[in-house]
Amino acid sequence: MTTSTKPYHLMTPAERTAWRIARNNAIAQKIADTKPQAPPVGSSVLGGTRATPAERAAIGTVIRKVR
Fold it and tell me: How far apart are CA 66 and CA 32, in angstroms?
């Protein structure tokens, strides 16, 4: 997407539409190029189910060792 040659309020409706489409395409491309994010730290590895006390204890020992 290049910078426009005239301010938005001076563009014709067709130019505004073309500019918005180009801007949206640039945003969509930027999102597609980003890496998928890691799940949040507190989320369970079990697909959204709650961890059992034994699993929480195992995670806790790892956290304590890291600190």
Answer: 33
